[in-house]
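Summary for the steering committee. The consortium agreed at its last meeting that each partner would contribute one worked example illustrating the joint modelling workflow. Our contribution is presented below. We chose a case with several input lines so that the handling of multiple components could be demonstrated. No manual editing was applied between input and output; the record is shown as generated.
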Amino acid sequence: MDDYVVSVKNVSKRFGDQDVLKHVSVDLERGKIYGLIGRNGSGKTMLLKTICGFVAPTEGEVCVWGRHVGRDVDFPDNLGFIIESPGFLPKESALKNLKYLASIKNRVGTDRIRECIAQVGLDPENHKPVGKYSLGMRQRLGIAQAIMENPDLLILDEPTNGLDNHGVEDIRALLLGLKKEGKTILIASHSAEDIAVLCDSVYEMDAGVLTGPIPTDIRS
Amino acid sequence: MNPFHRAWKVFAYQMGRVNSSPRIPILFLIIGIYIYSTVEPVAYFARSVGIASTPWIFPHLTSDYICQMVFMAGVIFLFCDAPFTDESYSYIVSRSGRTAWSAGHVLYIAAMSLIYVFFIAGASVLPLLNSLQGSWHWGKVLGTLARTNAGRQYGMTFTVSNYLTGAYSPATAALYSFLLEWACAAWFGLLTYFFNAVTHRMVGTFLSAAFVLLDLMISNEWTPRAFAFSPITLSQLSTFKSFKIQFGITLSYAAKFFIISLSVLAALCICRGFLTRFIRSTRRSLFKKQGRSGTVNG
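What follows is the complete predicted structure of the assembly.
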C-alpha cells in the first residue's frame, strides 16, 4: 500500500438509499497524471472529496502517502487540490488571498506565492480584488493556491473550467511540467482533449462505479 | 506547526470575511436604529427639563427583557451561518486541521460578540450626544426616570431600573452589564455553532431562538426555577433581586453559570473532531463485531 501515493480500497459512499460510490478501488503511482471522466453526477467529485478527506466513506478505506485518511490523519499532507469553485476573500487581491491561506501552514514565503501566481498567468502585483475576477481568473488563482505549497500530489476537479484557449494551454503546460518534477496528479475533467493530452491513465466513473484504466482509443 | 498559530490564522481569515458579508452591516444598522429609537425619548426628556443626561444608559438597556431579546435575536442573526462552511472551508480546513479550524471560530465568536456588545454600548450613548454630561454618578435625568413614571409620558419603551441606580455605581453596573452581555452573546454564538456543526442543519439556530424566548416563556408559564437556565435572564443585572434570589439566582450564580457553560461549549466546539473520530471508531468496532465487511469511516 505504501508503494502507491493514493490507494483507494473498496470505497462506497451512501446517502440514505442512494449509493454515490460503489466499491471503488484504485491505486495511483508517483509521477503520473491520472484522468477521471464521467457524466455529471456520476460520483467523480465525491471520489475526489473522499481522497482529500472531506467526505468519510461509508465503507472501505483511503490511504494517501501510506496514511489512512480519517483515522491516521483528517486531511492528507503534501496535497494540493481544487474542487468545485475555490473560495477567496472577495475584497482582497490575489496575492493577499494566497498569503492568508499560506500563512496557516506557514511553509512558503511571499516570493513563492508571487511565482505561483505568475505561473498560472496572473499578475501578482495586480491589486484588483478577487471579487472582480472573471471565472477564468478565479480558476487560475485556484490552481495557484493548489500548487503554492509545492505538494507532491495534486487533485484537480475541472482545472481548465472557464479558461480561454491560452489559459488552457498554460495550465496544460504547467501540469506537464509538474509531472516532470515527479508530482502525481489526478484530474477530473469533461474535456476529452485535456484527458488525451495530459493523462497517462484514465478511469471512467459511471453511476458510482469506477472502471479503468480505459484504452486510449476509447478515451478519444 | 503550532496549533495555536493555525487557530489564530483561521480566526484572522474569518475576521477578514466579515467586511465581505452584507449581513453584518445590515445587522448593526438595524440594531443601531432600534437603540436610537429606544433611547431617543431619554434625550427628549433631558432637553425638556433642561438637564443633561449622563451616559449610563447601557446597564438599563441590557436589564430590560425586551431589549435583551432584540439584542440576542441580533446575535442569532450574526451567527446563523455557523459553522461558517462556505466555499472557502475546504481550502482552509485542509491546511489548519479540524481542531484548529474550530478553535479559530470559537475565537471569532468571542471577538464578534465583543464587537457587538461594544457597538450596543456605544450606540446607547449616541442619541444623548446633544444633551450629555460626563459624570461618575447616575445623574438627575436617569435618577428621575428610575424613580418616577415620567419616562412613559415621553414615550420610553424600556425601564430605567430603580434597583440598579440604588444597588450599583454607574461604572460598576456598566462593567458588570458589559461582561454579562458579552458572555450571553458568546453563549448564543457557541450554542448555535456547536449544534449547527454537529447536526449539519440549523438546529443550533433554532435552539438559540428558543433560549431567547425562554425568559418570556418562564415569566408567563413556567416555574421561576427555570430562570436559572435562561441566559437572557442571567445577563440582566436588575434580575438579581427580589424573588429570584430565593431560587439562588444571584450575580455570583450568573458568573458561575456563564464561566462553566461557556467553557463546556467552547470545549465541545473545539473537540468536535475528536468526538467525531470517537464515534467513527466506535461504529467501526461495532461493525467488525457484527462481522460486516470493509471499514466504516462515516
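Chain A has a mean pLDDT of 90. The beta strands of chain A are 6-15, 18-28, 33-38, 59-64, 67-68, 79-82, 153-157, 184-188, 201-206, 209-211.
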